[in-house]
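for the recovery benchmark. tokens below, seq after
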């Protein structure tokens, strides 16, 4: 076992779990409702191995190539592999074959490609639809108004199961702004679910700097890299 990452996780993982538990309790929620996805992007395979050895079963990557490298080295047994970054159309087939959950479906076109690839392989691919609830121009994801129409359509596509929604907070220290970005995703989920029973309830939101706010606003999956593994190169 690579000592560096294993040792680091011995310190960082309990701290991250404490932050999650504290935020959940403060919000009157059960900490078990919040899944920790360990984001190993930008770190070597050793980081992913150490995470598994430390008991983390959900690992996230933001590039299909890097996901493929990690899976090649580690395999699939006992791991749920999360694809959390933008999926280019030409990578959709690989993403559909590799990921257990794609968090970042950000267009009907990508959804169709993923669905077709999964259906061809006689699989159902679990996905989240990424929504740009901050409105920041640099962010991927459907605009919330677009999502109102697109998500129920995506949920009807063969080969896909829409488990819920994903968003990223704006780049700011303003906690109120971050909170409203997350609240907007929760409200959108609630509206969509009242209209389509094919839309699931998961909310993937919260990273190293904003996980407590995300949990307060209903996150069911936090995607944590830096707080677990340190800065990326
Ligand atoms: C990198 C990344 C994360 C993890 O971010 P940290 O701030 O390092 O915790 C989460 N979600 C997405 C989509 C990412 O690209």
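predicted aa per position
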């Amino acid at each position: 076992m690579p000592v560096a990452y294993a040792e680091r996780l011995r310190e960082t993982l309990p701290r991250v779990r404490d932050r999650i538990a504290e935020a959940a309790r403060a919000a009157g929620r059960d900490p078990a409702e919040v899944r920790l996805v360990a984001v190993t992007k930008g770190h070597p395979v050793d980081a992913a191995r150490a995470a598994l050895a430390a008991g983390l079963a959900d690992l996230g990557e933001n590039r299909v190539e890097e996901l493929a490298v990690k899976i090649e080295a580690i395999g699939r047994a006992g791991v749920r592999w999360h694809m959390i970054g933008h999926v280019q159309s030409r990578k959709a087939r690989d993403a559909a074959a590799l990921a257990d959950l794609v968090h970042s479906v950000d267009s009907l076109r990508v959804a169709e490609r993923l669905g077709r690839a999964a259906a061809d392989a006689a699989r159902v691919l679990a996905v989240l639809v990424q929504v740009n609830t901050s409105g920041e121009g640099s962010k991927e994801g459907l605009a919330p108004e677009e999502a109102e129409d697109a998500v129920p359509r995506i949920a009807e596509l063969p080969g896909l199961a829409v488990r819920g929604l994903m968003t990223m907070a704006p780049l700011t220290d303003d906690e109120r702004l971050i909170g409203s970005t997350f609240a907007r995703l929760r409200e959108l989920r609630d509206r969509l679910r009242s209209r389509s029973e094919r839309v699931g309830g998961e909310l993937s939101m919260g990273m190293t700097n904003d996980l407590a706010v995300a949990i307060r606003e209903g996150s069911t999956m936090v995607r944590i890299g830096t707080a677990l593994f340190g800065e990326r190169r």
